[in-house]
Amino acid sequence: MVERGERDLRSTVRQIESQLEFFDSFVSKIVLVKAYLSRRYRFSASHRLHGEQLSDAENRAIYGKCNNPHGHGHNYTLEVTVSGSVEELTGMVCNLVDLDDCVQREVLSRFDIENLNMRPEFADVVPTTENLCTVIFDHLNQDILKRKFTQAHLERVRLEETMMNSFEYSGD
Ligand code: NI
């Protein structure tokens, strides 16, 4: 009985030791230094600012030239900011190739050279650049969470509509 007890105890100790080794190796790969990474992308799209729940006169009064029935285009600059721990092994917060893939799949393939008013995201929402920011943030965030391609966390999306206007959304 004693021998058996000793064997069990040794086996338990071995299991704990191997679990500790695994935990140590996992922790040593992560350096708890938080860094931010921002990357810029460009795309072009057209839109018309028009709220279905408003009268034509109200739409003209609120949106002015942007309510023109033929719409107008913008060359948008999108800045995506992610943050996270710098991984010791790679020295990176997130691999730019992964981030580029994500933005290509979730943003550029949807909105580049498109009429935003025709997109399902804007079926019931006016495609202002504020709303475009939130739509882009949600698409990117869902993809990042779903794929877990990185330790990185989506901090912010910033959209420059013109040289004079920019909009930001952080998911709040
Ligand atoms: Ni516009």
Would you spell out the secondary-structure blueprint of this structure?
Elements: H1 2-28, E1 30-47, H2 56-63, E2 72-87, H3 96-111, E3 114-115, H4 129-147, E4 153-160, E5 166-169
Parallel strand pairs: 1-3
Antiparallel strand pairs: 1-2, 2-4, 4-5
Helix pairs in contact: 3-4
The protein binds nickel (II) ion.
What does this structure look like?
The chain has 172 residues and is α+β, with helices and mostly antiparallel strands. The chain has one domain (30-169): 6-pyruvoyl tetrahydropterin synthase/QueD (Tetrahydropterin Synthase, Chain A, 2-Layer Sandwich). Helix content is 41%, strand content 28%. The protein is built from 4 helices and 5 strands; from the N terminus they run αβαβαβαββ. The chain has a 5-stranded mixed β-sheet with strand order 3-1-2-4-5. Helix 3 (96-111) crosses helix 4 (129-147). The longest helix has 27 residues, at 2-28. The chain is elongated. The termini are far apart. The model has no long low-confidence stretch (mean pLDDT 89). It binds nickel (II) ion (NI). Nickel (II) ion (NI) is lined by residues 47, 66, 72, 74.
